[in-house]
């Protein structure tokens, strides 16, 4: 870094992995936040805000055996040498908050939180180091009813955000059924830890490789089209049969899935606990008419299984969209969550049951835009041109009159000629420009220029002469009819 | 810090100067943000979001002659050793954004931003190291019209936030009139820098010390009631006369203030520039009917004069509120701003005119609550008790029916007896509890318990027996009349 001198001029740039956002993108997100928050509030959830900083030990982000924070979080030392880190999610701060205020809180405690989180990771395209999460959690309520509620609320929130029923599905599995399946397959021992991980990884590839590919990965291994070889988990055929049967137990009806699942994992106590939870969830979902087209028990869900302690869920889009070249676009999941009964335990020493869900709003907006082909470009304010700078107070008064009538409006400020001011109005995507030069003022008139119609006409009319003569997109009205005339143009 | 072992249990606590906020406080702030943003949007402003982190050099926060960030900001080094800092306001990031995107932006560029900022300062009561700012700025427009617009918008925003007209005033001064006054008083030279600062400090004490006290500070010095002595600025009587006349030039009408001001500072070129700006602002304000009761030219404003380059303004409450002991409560200012023509210059090398305003929303809420005596406590959701845990899906269904009718509702989740669940409903400030035990279920009924009426009655009825017998606050209805009955109770 250059030594700073008096003439030092910093470069205007942002740190890697951070971004600016402007205008309609923010407005669209605000609207979506509001819709999701409304659903959460209706379910009895209240908003919580926690600080950006937490003590690093409270986040559990110290490296083992050293007093320095690990990678992945932004950390610094406070005046008193204590390490603080910026929160990397909203769940760890919730655990700290609950532990700190445990006795005062109503239990179960339902809260939602909209907040920025920071990840000190390698940035990439569309992969930022700062983003917003929208979380809802129930702390202090055990499975299965709280989990069913979160799944139904998740589905409601996705629909409220604008995803039509049928275009998404909330998929549910349970950590304990997977553990039970691994037990039945003889993979419960400490010596089988690597194999268990390998099985989860293979299961996660069902969508991409199909059943045959997963079976190869469970067995000796798999050579892909490029000739690359992936080592297998080396399960016996019998063991692989259990894994494959487990995944194949996913049916179109949740009750049928539970019945098939009970046959596979019922011999394991852990598996039995898991299947019982899913059965009770399925009953609740059925009682409230959330069938498998909205919330489906799907045993191929692997995501987050290592973090969660019970039910896990994620919401995915069920439609496919192609990019310009006809290739399917992958949106990834809309969000997900699950049960984490031991997070507050880190502080309290006692287990506090908790279950929650997190939605990625920017991904949701991107997917909806692609799906509907809708663009977010909104019209800007009405712009009152300031052709005679000395008359600016009068131009500002026109803008104020429009605003008083509920119309976004601004007066141009600064010295610029007519052409530049019209270009400015175009750049602002103004629907209407108001013009009052010397002539109009003498006559007590203003000219209303319909820029939307103007755009259409200039696309249609190729004859420049015809355009100039007609100017159908602009007309003069008496000064005191300004607001009325603009209203009429905007209503077109 | 203790070495971390397997059994390490972190204490649930927050770093100093940071806070959690929950529930109605956040909702009140959201409502206020929305109202202020709506005003800004009506004036043609669009929202901007910038990252929490900026390069430290872009914030201008390096210590002179060393490559380490100064105090006051939270800073850390990125992987590539570059120093980043969390933004301490929203103006420095705006300058960086404008410099980075200068050619693409419409000019003037109007943006508002709601965002967290961080100050690495000593925390105190009500003084946090993280808070939210609501800013609006116009970049690329010179004085005076942009400044007048910002002042009017500021007044509109304060009113939209709920402060009645008459309860606040936006006070306006201009850096250049002060500089002109100092010039007229013979304090323009490099050797008078300390005296200039002393004059500004003395002016800032007009409210507290009155004219006589300020005059003492401008002269030899002042002994306060406790006997402590403050050194004076050692101005001659003639010099002090200029300063006192300057402050006394503030009149009830902006035009009168400008006329008085012109007499005092008109001999200085800088002063003349300043007074001309204020005159044009006064004309605009008058044309748009913002008289001195809303936006007043007030030459005693000192705050921020050193940072700004032209007009400065701040909004203050005009009412006095007393605390429990009858002492006046000081709310401080609602917010303020001014013109800073050289902020983007740091990047671009050329001057870019800019003017903006910042509102402190939490202070505004605190003041409004004190003023109106209103409390923010809102009712919570309707709580459906779960007396028979096995019936939870049915209880959840009742809650879902209420939500479908637009009523916030939740079913109790978890095993607890009747008393505990009623206590939970009270803690949640539920307006209504729904009860269906075995008896009610057998009869196809539910009991509606009006907790609001219940509170009132239990305050009035002292006879426990009478209370139990009457129970006027609860009644049974057929199951299919649940929603209707709750609606009626809520409408009470």
What's the arrangement of secondary structure elements?
The structure is a homodimer of 492-residue chains.
Chain A (H helix, E strand, L loop, with lengths): L20 E2 L1 H19 L3 E4 L3 E3 H4 L15 E3 L5 E4 L4 H10 L8 E10 L11 E10 L5 H16 L7 E7 H10 L8 H11 L2 H13 L2 E3 L5 E3 L5 H12 L5 H12 L3 H19 L7 E3 L13 E7 L3 E2 L5 E2 L5 E5 L5 H4 L5 E6 L1 H12 L9 E3 L7 H13 L4 E3 L6 H10 L4 E4 L2 H6 L1 E6 H10 L3 H7 L3 E5 L3 H10 L1
Parallel strand pairs in A: 2-6, 8-11, 17-18, 17-19
Antiparallel strand pairs in A: 3-5, 4-5, 6-7, 7-16, 8-12, 9-10, 12-15, 13-14, 15-16, 19-20, 20-21
Largest sheet of chain A, order of strands side by side? 2-6-7-16-15-12-8-11
Quaternary organisation of the protein chains = homodimer
CATH topology description of the domain at 382-491 in chain A: Rossmann fold
**Termini distance of chain A?**
57 Å
Fraction in helix of chain A: 40-55%
Poorly predicted runs of chain A are 1-5
Number of strands of chain A: 21
Shape of chain A: elongated
